[in-house]
Amino acid sequence: MDKISVMVVDDSYETRSNVKQLLSFSRNIRVTAEAASGEEAIVLAGEMRPDVILMDINMPGMDGIKATEEISMNMPETVVVIMSVQGETEYVRKAMTAGAREYLCKPFSGDELSETIVRAYENEMKRREKITPSSGKQQMRSRVITIFSTKGGVGKTTIASNLAVSMARTSKKRVALLDLDLQFGDVAIMLNVSVKNTISDLVKEFGQMDESLIDDYLVTHFSGVRVLPAPVKPEYADYITANHIEKIINILRESYNYIIIDTSASFHETVLTSLDMSDMILVVSTLDLPTIKNVKSGLDVMETLNYPREKIHVVLNKASEQFGIRYRDFEDVLHKQIWAYVPEDSQTVVTSVNKGFPFVMTRTETKVARAIIDMGNELMRELEGGAGKKSPLSKLFG
Q1: What is 4-131's CATH topology?
Q2: Rounded distance, CA 29 to CA 51, Å?
Q3: What is the pLDDT along the chain (398 residues), one digit of tens a residue?
Q4: 143-396 in CATH: which number?
Q5: Which residues of 128-137 are buried (b: 16+ CB within 10 A; e: fewer)?
């Protein structure tokens, strides 16, 4: 059998070293990564995709139980084995509830450690065999959602990134996130993913572009979202055409349930292509006069392009009437109802961006996170044919 790849997670450097030393004698196991915290474990697990994670239960910050819960939810193919000095039933129960497959009490011998890892891994392989679907590729029911505005600085990238993560976590379906703000895209920074190749590198292989090639260029966020980053230099945007975007989206439709697209604040041909191909367009605005003017102009352009009205939803970000413009006046100017309200919460949003952890994962108790989560749920409901008669999501705010 191929060697089982293992990641060791413990805040103690000495413990990690001892575990690696014990496993160095095993012919079936190789340690491929190590982490000193629960947060680091989640990020590394998304990048490395180890077969097994040895997770210490007691760590400062995010403990092993919470980290196990996140990894089991977003990377169910990875087996988590909990290590702990506590052997009480309550700790074992919490670990198993979080998704751990085995529980090891410290101290343990090398043989005990190796046998536990191999047993947990082999049990997982047997489980997968039982649930493997029959041969034949199932037709993917894919939906494209574009986040757009004719004004910069309104929070498109924040909404697109957190919406993609929320929908991936809620639906357990495949979600791709494309950064089509080709000159100044920030999705990779927002999600703290390491960028090796971008869309500008991908289009160089346009003639050979297929599902497998695009998959090689997508970066995996630890939530499970696959990200296609924007070019690293603004001038590279000139080499990306509408034909490139059309082909990329069509290929992604074959294997992703939801494709979320972040865009620049313009009607560039690449943006128009994504708008044309979208099943739903979220037009983001804030309550200031320059933005309202630009958003109104953008909606007028979409009307001349004969986009169906039900395809376009207005999202009011940083929603508050305290600066003198009422929601009703805003709707009267746009001749369109506000579909969703996202409340102002600069502290949560800025902290999330600086740490690289989406607030829909780390601050789910906040109103801004709840607004995005509810927005994702409503989008999935509408796109899967369950819309019926539905009022705008006014309850997201307040």
Answers
A1: Rossmann fold (3.40.50)
A2: 10
A3: 578 999 999 999 999 999 999 999 888 899 999 999 999 999 999 888 999 999 999 898 899 999 998 888 778 788 999 998 887 777 777 887 778 888 888 888 999 999 999 988 988 887 666 544 444 445 567 999 999 999 988 999 999 999 999 999 888 899 999 999 999 999 999 998 888 889 999 998 888 888 888 998 999 888 889 999 999 899 988 889 888 999 999 999 999 999 999 999 988 889 999 999 999 999 999 999 999 999 999 999 898 888 899 999 999 998 887 878 888 999 999 999 999 999 989 999 999 888 888 999 888 899 999 999 999 999 999 988 764 444 445 444 43
A4: 3.40.50.300
A5: eeeeeeeeee
The residue length of the chain stands at 398
Comma-separated ranges of CATH 3.40.50.300 domains in the chain = 143-396
Residues 316 and 286: their CA atoms lie apart, in Å, by 6
Q: Which two tokens stand for residue 114?
A: 């190796």
